[in-house]
Each structure stands twice: as C-alpha cells, then as structure tokens.
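Human: I would love a firmer grasp of how sequence relates to backbone shape in proteins. Take your time, and here it is.
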Amino acid sequence: MLFRRLTGSGVVFVLLLSVCFAQGQFDFDKAVYIKPVEGSKGEPVPGVLRFDTAKKEMQFVGTGGPPALSVKYEAIKGLLHEYSATPRYAAALVVPPLLFTKSKKHYLTVSYLDAAGTPKYAIFHLDKSNFQEVLTRAESETGKKMERD
C-alpha cells in the first residue's frame, strides 16, 4: 500500500516537473538591473532575470511591475561577464581597518540592437548563488559565446 502511494506521488511530481520545463521559461531571482540614467552611474532596480524560450527573448522584471527590459535573442550581439571589485564602504564605517578591503561582484553586460537598430547595452548585477546558471542559460538560449573579463 505504501509503495502505491509513493509511486502515485512520484508520477504526479514528474508530471508537474515536465509542465514547468515545457513552458521554457527560466527565472533567476536576486538580479539587479542597472538602469541607465542620464548624468549618473545608473539606478539599481532589483528583480528577476528571465529567459523565455517560447518568445525567444530575455526579460528583466522589476519587483511588482511589468518587464523593465525585453530583448529578443536575435537582437543580442554580445555577452560579457565581469567579476569586478568595488569598495565596501558600509563595512569600513563599522570597522576602520576594513576601509581598504574590496568585494568582488558578478556583472552580466548584454549588448544589443533596439528596434531602430541603435546599439544599446544592459548591465545586470548577478547574485553569487546563481550567477553560473545565469551565464550558462544566457549562452545556451542566445547562442552567443560569453566573453570573460
């Protein structure tokens, strides 16, 4: 009797799993889109980076809103992964010897052409817990080779 319950649960689990993957939508949370702002470094917008296989586009959806950015795969011209250091100012205020320590962060830069054919780029700060999966998915979905810096 226990075997039947486990088998039935396993079948339901496999069906649900196949439905999730059949949609072809891969979401990566903990991403931050550095939205370009004239005259400054950019405005950080937290949200979800999404690769939609059915629509063949990459989207960034901010928390609680419509897609802030949507780029078709065919419009993407290049992918760049950067692992760069930035000063940790907040920690330095608490413990003065940490003033010169640096924290490295993962960034994905996507260069693309907009609808008018103008070259544009989008920068995403990726979380260290899922940056490898994001980079792998970006390469496999777009068909572009990731440049490393």
